[in-house]
Write a structure and sequence with these properties.
The protein is built from seven helices and nine strands. The protein has helices at residues 10-20, 50-58, 77-85, 96-105, 119-129, 134-150, 163-178, and strands spanning 2-3, 25-26, 29-31, 45-47, 62-68, 71-76, 90-91, 112-115, 156-159. It has a four-stranded mixed β-sheet. It has a three-stranded parallel β-sheet with strand order 1-8-9, with helices on one face.
Length: 197
């Protein structure tokens, strides 16, 4: 599971990771929002009605779920179970709340926090986009600060100073977990992993 504050570069890093490691499966979430143009059921999301989703919550069918802007989003247990039973490594792009929900149900899950080199750099990246009004940027920064405070609860931290370095660091974590080394070991990733914020 990979979490990161807005502006840390998570989407870019994970896209590059999936290009380099096609054997890794990117988790497909369920949602009650309508499909956007070009989205396909089962590829981009599992599109469910609100009733279907609520019944799934009651039946314990989600590893994690949340309501965001009036729509439900969640990770189906059946999808994770199917992929893991076939020996696949599954990557989840997930917020801190969802990550901790899954960790509670699945203690063997691996949590990776993708951090910016510094809070100042994160703010610079968010403002450089120039796509959002100031109040939205300020809200994103407040959320980012809270998320960074939770990063110590993750199994690993990868600092995204350079995209390719961050991708290699995540690959190192995956290999370390595959070989059964204990979490908390130092990941030998040069100067890019575990830098203090």
């Amino acid at each position: 599971m990979v979490s990161a504050p807005s502006g840390a570069g998570k989407t870019t890093v994970l896209k590059r990771l999936m290009q380099r490691r096609p054997e890794i499966v990117f988790s497909v979430s369920a949602t009650t929002r309508a499909p956007r143009p070009g989205e396909e059921d089962g590829r981009d999301y599992f599109f469910l009605s609100t009733d279907e989703f609520r019944k799934g919550i009651e039946a314990g069918e989600f590893a994690e779920w949340a309501e965001v802007h009036g729509h439900y989003y969640g990770t189906p247990e059946s999808y994770l179970g199917s992929q893991l039973s076939h020996g696949k490594d599954v990557i989840l792009d997930i917020d801190t709340q969802g990550a901790f929900q899954i960790k509670e149900k699945h203690p063997e899950a691996v949590l990776i926090f993708l951090a910016p080199p510094s809070f100042e750099e994160l703010e610079r990246r968010l403002r450089a986009r120039k796509t959002e009004p100031e109040d939205v940027v300020e809200r994103r920064l407040r959320v980012a600060r809270a998320e960074l405070e939770l990063s110590g609860k993750y199994d690993y931290m990868v600092v995204n100073s350079e995209i390719d370095d961050a991708v290699r660091d995540i690959e190192t974590v995956i290999e370390q977990e595959r070989t059964g080394r204990h979490r908390g070991d130092v990941v030998d990733c040069g100067d890019n992993t575990g830098a203090a914020l």
